[in-house]
Design a protein that fits this description.
By secondary structure, the chain is of the alpha+beta class. The chain has 6 helices and 7 strands. Strand 2 and strand 3 form a beta hairpin.
Length: 163
């Protein structure tokens, strides 16, 4: 079941909405002028980007930790990127008729990565202790003149691991 979630090219927001009564986005952080790694620069073609980190919740439980990186030029092309607040990114981008998505990259976090993320993102209190290490995917969502590198981490207690 997890595989079908990881490889789904549609809107994760819409899929989550179908699995819960109440869906919401909890903004964790926004930062500007984030220095990108060489790998991220390759995806976005820039040295700096804005970063937005959120939790996607179903019925009050965090299912997904998501991070989006987008350049200043992307924000100028799509000003709504800067003011998303607790609105899902998918609601903005998947409305665009010319949206494209790159191929996915997949990874399972190792124990050190997962513990580091739990500490830096304060996920410890939100996630039940489990031996299961989470899976993540990333891809670039693009509309004319704007690219967003999206990383989505499927949190361990999330139902897609149990179905």
């Amino acid at each position: 079941m997890l595989n079908s979630w990881l490889q789904d090219t549609g809107s994760l927001t819409e899929r989550l909405r179908r699995h819960c009564q109440h869906f919401n986005v909890q903004l964790q952080a926004t930062r500007s002028h984030v220095k990108l790694s060489a790998e991220q620069q390759g995806w976005l073609g820039a040295k700096q980007a804005n970063c937005r980190e959120v939790l996607l919740l179903c019925d009050g439980q965090p299912w997904i930790y998501a991070s989006s990186l987008y350049t200043q030029s992307a924000e100028q092309a799509v000003p709504a990127l800067a003011g998303l607040g607790e609105r899902a990114l998918g609601e903005l981008l998947f409305e665009h008729p010319q949206l494209t998505r790159s191929a996915f990259e997949f990874a399972q976090l190792n124990q050190a990565q997962w513990q580091g993320l739990q500490q830096t993102q304060q996920l410890t209190s939100l996630v039940n202790s489990t031996q299961l290490l989470p899976w993540a995917r990333r891809s670039v969502l693009a509309i004319p003149q704007a690219q967003v590198l999206v990383t989505e981490l499927f949190l361990p207690q999330e139902h897609v691991y149990q179905e």
